[in-house]
């Protein structure tokens, strides 16, 4: 067993958990780190499969609330409206992600410069969105109308480009569509569950013949670290965003993208 790879996997899992739910692109961070560390798994599965830890982090934090929704589904129209809204928002990424899977994994995932440029452009876009004064019309993430959910779902498709950020595209889109910051971030949490679960299942199926026992070991290590870090972020992010907005994340994106481009020029 290569303990050095286990340590790297734990570190990368920690980064995944810390960045998955904030608008800085967890995949972008992982792709840049794995590139410079020389870390890889068969089929580039690590970056996708450790997201299961982040999914379980949401489930653990929102367990009581989600259980309550599940129990009310047969009798409460508002519970059904919420579940259907999340599924509607998930559909665009599900369809386009399946169609473009091979291109994303073999081209975009293998081009670190794309990640850096997307981080920088997304950072400036997030700064612009954060500084706009739009009177929010939607403040309850569990009561978003279906039309709004679908529009946010199409915004999420932008995150097929690594470095754009799934949470960044959904939160930014929700803010432009008239949602307040707290509910936009919370809806992004809920939308993450089917989106990441679908990506996990599809990527596991596509690479079922190439994943090795060693791959599973490092993926498990990354999964555990992602879960622990994800719980911390989910518990604290909403209050942070309510106080500080998204500007700190925007500047972080610009910094990481700029340093990444400089490193690519200097060391390749």
TrEMBL record:
<dbReference type="GO" id="GO:0009252">
    <property type="term" value="P:peptidoglycan biosynthetic process"/>
</dbReference>
<feature type="transmembrane region" description="Helical">
    <location>
        <begin position="216"/>
        <end position="238"/>
    </location>
</feature>
<dbReference type="Pfam" id="PF02673">
    <property type="entry name" value="BacA"/>
</dbReference>
<dbReference type="GO" id="GO:0050380">
    <property type="term" value="F:undecaprenyl-diphosphatase activity"/>
</dbReference>
<dbReference type="GO" id="GO:0071555">
    <property type="term" value="P:cell wall organization"/>
</dbReference>
<dbReference type="GO" id="GO:0008360">
    <property type="term" value="P:regulation of cell shape"/>
</dbReference>
<dbReference type="InterPro" id="IPR003824">
    <property type="entry name" value="UppP"/>
</dbReference>
<keyword id="KW-0046">Antibiotic resistance</keyword>
<feature type="transmembrane region" description="Helical">
    <location>
        <begin position="141"/>
        <end position="164"/>
    </location>
</feature>
<keyword id="KW-0472">Membrane</keyword>
<feature type="transmembrane region" description="Helical">
    <location>
        <begin position="250"/>
        <end position="267"/>
    </location>
</feature>
<keyword id="KW-0812">Transmembrane</keyword>
<keyword id="KW-0133">Cell shape</keyword>
<feature type="transmembrane region" description="Helical">
    <location>
        <begin position="82"/>
        <end position="101"/>
    </location>
</feature>
<dbReference type="GO" id="GO:0005886">
    <property type="term" value="C:plasma membrane"/>
</dbReference>
<keyword id="KW-0573">Peptidoglycan synthesis</keyword>
<comment type="similarity">
    <text>Belongs to the UppP family.</text>
</comment>
<keyword id="KW-1133">Transmembrane helix</keyword>
<keyword id="KW-1003">Cell membrane</keyword>
<keyword id="KW-0961">Cell wall biogenesis/degradation</keyword>
<feature type="transmembrane region" description="Helical">
    <location>
        <begin position="107"/>
        <end position="129"/>
    </location>
</feature>
<feature type="transmembrane region" description="Helical">
    <location>
        <begin position="184"/>
        <end position="204"/>
    </location>
</feature>
<dbReference type="GO" id="GO:0046677">
    <property type="term" value="P:response to antibiotic"/>
</dbReference>
<comment type="function">
    <text>Catalyzes the dephosphorylation of undecaprenyl diphosphate (UPP). Confers resistance to bacitracin.</text>
</comment>
<protein>
    <recommendedName>
        <fullName>Undecaprenyl-diphosphatase</fullName>
        <ecNumber>3.6.1.27</ecNumber>
    </recommendedName>
</protein>
<keyword id="KW-0378">Hydrolase</keyword>
<feature type="transmembrane region" description="Helical">
    <location>
        <begin position="48"/>
        <end position="70"/>
    </location>
</feature>
């Amino acid at each position: 067993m290569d303990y050095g790879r286990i340590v790297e996997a734990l570190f990368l899992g920690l980064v995944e958990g810390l960045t998955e739910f904030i608008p800085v692109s967890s995949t972008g961070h992982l792709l840049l780190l794995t590139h410079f560390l020389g870390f890889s798994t068969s089929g580039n599965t690590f970056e996708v499969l450790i997201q299961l830890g982040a999914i379980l982090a949401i489930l653990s934090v929102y367990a009581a609330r989600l259980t309550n929704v599940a129990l009310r589904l047969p009798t409460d129209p508002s519970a059904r409206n919420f579940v259907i809204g999340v599924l509607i928002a998930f559909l665009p990424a599900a369809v386009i992600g399946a169609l473009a899977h091979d291109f994303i994994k073999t081209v975009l995932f293998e081009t670190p410069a794309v990640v850096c440029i997307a981080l920088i452009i997304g950072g400036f876009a997030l700064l612009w969105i954060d500084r706009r004064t739009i009177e929010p019309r939607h403040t309850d993430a569990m009561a978003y109308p279906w039309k709004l959910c679908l529009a946010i779902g199409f915004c999420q498709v932008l995150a097929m480009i690594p470095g754009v950020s799934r949470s960044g595209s959904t939160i930014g889109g929700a803010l432009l569509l008239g949602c307040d910051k707290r509910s936009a971030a919370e809806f992004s949490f809920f939308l993450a569950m089917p989106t990441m679960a679908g990506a996990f299942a599809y990527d596991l199926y596509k690479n079922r013949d190439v994943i090795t026992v060693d791959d599973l070991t490092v993926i498990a290590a990354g999964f555990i670290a992602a879960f622990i870090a994800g719980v911390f972020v989910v518990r604290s992010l909403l209050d942070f965003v309510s106080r500080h907005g998204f500007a700190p994340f925007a500047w972080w994106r610009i910094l990481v993208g700029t340093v990444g481009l400089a490193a690519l020029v200097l060391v390749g």
